[in-house]
Amino acid sequence: MGSQNKFFKGILMGAIAGGAISLLDRETRKSVVESCKKGTKEVSYYLSHPTEMAEQIRDKTSKLRTTVAQVSEDVTYIAEKVEELREVTPSVAGLVKDTREAFDQEEKEN
Q: Which residue of 3, 14, 44, 94 shows the fewest CB atoms closer than 10 Å?
């Protein structure tokens, strides 16, 4: 258990070191500062307008449910068509075989 703890500690330290090194670049620092400011503004906005956030979550959830239902219907439709093909394929194969035999028979007669 101790070695696993050291492993995750090492990963965390590596991530912190990598983040610190990447901040040596001016463009990266600007980008991080802008992202933090934007994130802070959004959090502040939603803290002062919680009903709007709840409404957006409801809308997204509703859209997700609709999409899942549509995908489920599509999968059911495809499964039905595959089953139909399984049932029809032997008949078609038999028909093709009979047709080929008829043509072969006709060629032998000519």
A: 3
- Cα 15 to Cα 12: distance, rounded to the nearest angstrom: 5
Q: Note the pLDDT tens digit of each residue in 22-67.
A: 989 999 999 999 999 999 999 999 999 999 999 999 999 999 999 9
**Amino acid at position 96, single letter:** V
Longest Cα–Cα distance in the chain: 91
3-state helix/strand/coil string of the chain: CHHHHHHHHHHHHHHHHHHHHHCCCHHHHHHHHHHHHHHHHHHHHHHHCHHHHHHHHHHHHHHHHHHHHHHHHHHHHHHHHHHHHHHHHHHHHHHHHHHHHHHHHHHHHC
What digits encode the pLDDT tens for the residues 30-42? 999 999 999 999 9
